[in-house]
Amino acid sequence: MFFHLIKYQIKKRLNTKDELFWSLVFPILLGTFFFVSFGGFFDKYETFHAIPVAYVQGNNKSLDSKYFDNFLKELEGGKEPILEISRVSQEEADKLLKKEEIKGIIHAADSITLIVKEDGMDQSILKGILDQYLQKSSTINDIMKTAPEKLEGVINSLYEETNYLIEDSFSDGNMDAMVTYFYALIAMSCLYGCFAGHTIAIQAKANLSNLAARRVVSCTNKLQMILADFFGTLFVQFICSLISLGYLTLVLKVNFGNKMPLIICTILVGNIIGIATGLFISAVGRQSENVKMGIVIGITMTECFLSGLMIQNMRVIVEKYFPILNRINPASVLVDSFYSLNIYDTYERYTKNMIILLTMAAVLCILSYLTVRRERYASL
Amino acid sequence: MQVYRAFLKILKKNLPAVSIYFFIFMGLTIAFSRSGNENSKTQFEQEKLTLCIINQDDGGLGKDLKDYLSTLHKLKNIKNDKETLQDALYNRQVDYILYIPNDFTEKMNQGITSEVLRTIKIPGGTAGFFIDTQVEQYLSTLKLYLKADYAKEQAVKQAKKDLSVQTKVTVPNGEEVSELEPAFYYFNYLPYIFICITIMGLGPILMAFQKKEISDRNNCSSMSLKNKNMQITIGCITFVTFCLIIFMFLAGIMYSDFVFSINGLLSFINAGIFILIALAMTFLFAQFAKNENILNMGCNTIGLGLSFLGGIFVPHEIMGDKVLQVARFTPTYWYVIANEKIQGIKSFAHLPKEVLISFGLEAAFAISIFSIGLIITKRKQDAK
């Protein structure tokens, strides 16, 4: 009987096109919108690329300009060039700057000047590079004046290979902060199980639907009925979330880190909490079906908003002013779980999150069942 | 005017659903409007980033390096705990983490130039590259003075003096580094809200008049079809005019200087043309929608889709070139282009042609979408 009920619940879910749209199509559409809008942000804005610049040589060619030319050549050569230099006339350079094809113009005559159109990281790096040249010249001049006997050793040491800095990293996870939007999207897809949870409650409360009135007079045990509805719904919801995840990782190539089995586990737990939320809200109280649906949507959307679906660093803002909210908001806990799996090499925080979510789901399910069981109606 | 009155009655019933979008809009505008205190500047300013320096060196050079970097960037004290630092770097609360080990001074004195400091940054990132070059420049300058047998204190003093030498940076004459006004963001989010409000507000009404029973009943009444359609059209125009007035009124309260200027007038025209596009889209979509759930799905998909693709939520500069080529086929793209160009206008004489082109294209979108809607209505009627 139990499996028979599950089978029919699954069939019913697959035939409810409205719910399938929100659980399956909408996350895929929103994911695509996110991807086309800021999928390239990390590469375009945060990753270093050779800076396009124009180099204009003035008429006054002193001996220094030879050193400066060599200095620039070194910067544009090698495996990972720092500059992409166009050697052009002043007029041509002005045109390129106006069309924003270059970030700045290096003008070398009696002195070195940088011409830029606006502030920015590339412009600051350009200035930093030119500063290096001027500062090194100043150092050599100083030493030449004060300790000329050491000059040869100093100049030789200029050509020594140095690597003062060693780059370390906390983890090999994806550091692109925009992925947070996709975490929030998956969390949303899980929590949209609340619509199906709402339907389970409507199908179990005889005062809310004709179907429920028919079902409660049958001889089937109510716990068995609700559990079958729950597992049938969970199955369909889980498949929808997995399809969304598959689309994001395989088609859009969003990098969620390398712990896929645990991500899938998290999604399952997310679906449980989503369905449990809808079930609980619609099981308690005597409001009409539409009012209950309004409350379900309102709560779920607020949870998603606070987890960063609309504003990427929302979770950080909440953490600063009201951290407890991040511990009890299922959407934020889900986002934090995906984040912990991506970034940390330990599982402490992830395990804590899973315990929070499972406890919440268990409490919601038990409370919902206690509300629905043994309900009697004087008249319907 | 029975039809018009029935129109307003249904509208009144739908107002709560429409008002949700009004609050979403207010939230978006307040969350995203940045202060416009820096309207223009002609001076170049070097980028200032946020660093976390964990200095364990007790020889003195570590502190000198920290002091030097504090003159260039903002320093942030964060607990030396792996998880806290990881979170801060991921959330871009710091751009760069620098560990100065306890043997830093000793190594520098011995002339060791390899792996004296440990850094953590976004791999391959621009910010990391920028600070790396500054730290390396400091260390290499210091090394040259130490190599020349300067005393430690003297070497630091000389290095700092040399590092204060700066390249002259100029901004071409007449070029002003300008930032966008907060009103820009207000007008930029309007299309999303217009699409949602018109679809959710007018969609159910248009659908109601198209219901088979109601439409059959209306058709057999003495009122002519022309008269009925005219009243529905007046109803739609009342609704969009009312929306436009409310949003312009709000803009007038929040950004009065901007609204009561040539820029405000042009923004009003831009918004006015766009609400006609939203109206045309609602008219077209109502021909397909069978119930309110489908209307709701369509509203979210069309509203969010056009907003993301057209550059309402995310600036065009961030979007890829290929995406932008596709975006040209959306009305929202041209709305955003017009909105951007309107910002800098000082008089009608300097009206950029992009603004007029965008207005024209938006109007063309409205007419074509409306025409498609009309063709579909005609086909439907013929099919009957």
TrEMBL record, chain A:
- Protein topology in the membrane: Multi-pass membrane protein
- Which Pfam families would you find in this protein's record? ABC2_membrane_3 (PF12698)
Q: Which residues cross the membrane?
A: 20-42, 181-204, 225-248, 260-281, 293-311, 354-372
Gene Ontology molecular-function annotations: ABC-type transporter activity
Keyword Transmembrane included in the entry's annotation:
yes
Q: Keywords in alphabetical order, please.
A: Membrane, Transmembrane, Transmembrane helix
Instruction: Indicate the segments annotated as coiled coil, or none if absent.
Output: none
Q: Under which name does UniProt file this protein?
A: ABC transporter permease
From TrEMBL, chain B:
What keywords appear on the UniProt entry?
A: Cell membrane, Membrane, Transmembrane, Transmembrane helix
Q: Where in the cell is it found?
A: Cell membrane
Taken from the UniProt entry, a GO cellular component term is: plasma membrane
What region holds the ABC-2 type transporter transmembrane domain? Answer: 22-374
Pfam families assigned: ABC2_membrane_3 (PF12698)
Q: Which InterPro entries match?
A: ABC-2_transporter_component (IPR051449), ABC2_TM (IPR013525)
Protein's name according to its UniProt entry: ABC transporter permease
Q: How does it sit in the membrane?
A: Multi-pass membrane protein
Give the matching PANTHER family.
MEMBRANE COMPONENT OF ABC TRANSPORTER YHHJ-RELATED (PTHR30294), MULTIDRUG ABC TRANSPORTER PERMEASE YBHS-RELATED (PTHR30294:SF29)
* Gene3D superfamilies linked: abc type-2 transporter like domain
